[in-house]
Design brief:
Helices cover 26% and strands 17% of the residues. It has nine helices and ten strands. Helix 4 runs parallel beside helix 5 and helix 7 runs parallel beside helix 8.
Length: 305
């Protein structure tokens, strides 16, 4: 069955929507017809920032009729990355967290939206999940562009190397030469960060050799913030040296580094740890804008930072 061509703005299904990194990247350039996620806190954040319809369900429990009735032009997906991460057990399609992706691919083969886009960790490339996705897309006649991209290549301050795929039943544009307006750490900081973000002196002395610390003066890049930031010491993101001591970045400061706009809000009652977990799971808005600009109707995204 061929998809119907919608008039006006692209209709988007934001699958694994989380806090809405894709919606933040598209702003008003497209219409999100449904944002689906299983996490209540993530959807609370989503609803606090976007007017789009949301659905709290496991994606594998949604019948194909849901996907058909959504009549979306673009299916955006950022499925759980644990089955493909270096730190994980590399269970790939055997990991229960990949189950929803397998079900979506079955629906994709039948519904055939005009565009498909996906973000995941580098380890996704050449995984069995990746092969399955390519098999489905190739058999259905999609043109496919794939790339690795770190937002620092676009001029952003925060490292977040990821694999991206865009597929079309039609033509795709070349990736644009997209530049992020120069970012300086001091412009991205909260005026009054929570005291709970500061680490104790003894703790810092114990771990200083393994921490990545940036200063407010420096123009250093910050490391990729993982959902374990605030929980694990090493490899989960950078720390900040201030006049008052060493501290972690607040979730909102991380969002700004990812390219979310200044108006993006986290609910006041959201615990700090949950905030870190949600933003660590999210996306580089800069990178997603530049990736989605390969879709002709979204090429405007490639023109701004
Ligand atoms: C890598 S994160 C994507 C985050 C999102 N792109 C954002 O901007 O915040 C994966 C998301 O998928 C959700 N998720 C995981 N398994 C799911 C499933 N089976 N059905 C629906 N959502 C699921 C998680 O709650 C999480 O928010």
């Amino acid at each position: 069955m061929h998809c119907t061509i919608n008039q006006g703005r692209l209709r988007v299904l934001e699958l694994y929507s989380g806090i809405g990194g894709c919606a933040a990247a598209m702003r008003d350039s497209a219409e999100v017809v449904s944002a689906v996620d299983i996490d209540c806190d993530a959807l609370d954040v989503y609803r606090a920032n976007f007017p789009h319809p949301t659905l709290r369900r496991t994606l594998e429990s949604l019948p194909i009729a849901f996907f058909r009735h959504a009549n979306a032009d673009l299916w955006w997906m950022s499925p759980p990355c644990q089955p493909y991460t270096q730190r994980g057990r590399h269970r790939d399609l055997d990991d229960p967290r990949a189950q929803s992706f397998k079900v979506i691919l079955q629906h994709l083969a039948h519904v055939r939206p005009r565009y498909v886009a996906l973000e995941n960790v580098a380890g996704f490339l050449n995984s069995r999940a990746h092969h399955l996705l390519r098999e489905v897309l190739d058999r259905a006649g999609y043109a496919v562009n794939e790339r690795f991209l770190c937002p620092t290549e676009l001029g952003a301050i925060n490292r977040r190397p990821r694999f991206y795929l865009v597929a079309a039943l039609g033509e795709l544009r070349d990736w644009p030469h997209f530049r992020v307006m120069s970012q300086h750490i001091s412009n991205l900081l909260d005026a009054a960060p929570s005291p709970a973000t500061f680490v104790e002196e003894v703790w810092y002395e114990r771990y200083r050799s393994v921490l990545h610390v940036v200063s407010t003066e420096a123009v250093d890049q910050t490391r990729c913030f993982a959902s374990s930031y605030g929980k694990y010491v090493v490899g989960s993101g950078s720390y900040l040296a201030t006049r008052d001591g060493i501290r972690r970045f607040t979730p909102v400061e991380i969002l700004r580094q990812l390219g979310f706009n200044n108006g993006f809000r986290l609910p006041r009652e959201l615990p700090l740890r949950r905030g870190w977990a949600l933003v660590g799971n999210s996306l580089s808005v800069h990178a997603v804008r530049s990736v989605l600009a390969a879709i002709p109707e979204l090429s405007v995204l490639g023109g701004e930072s």
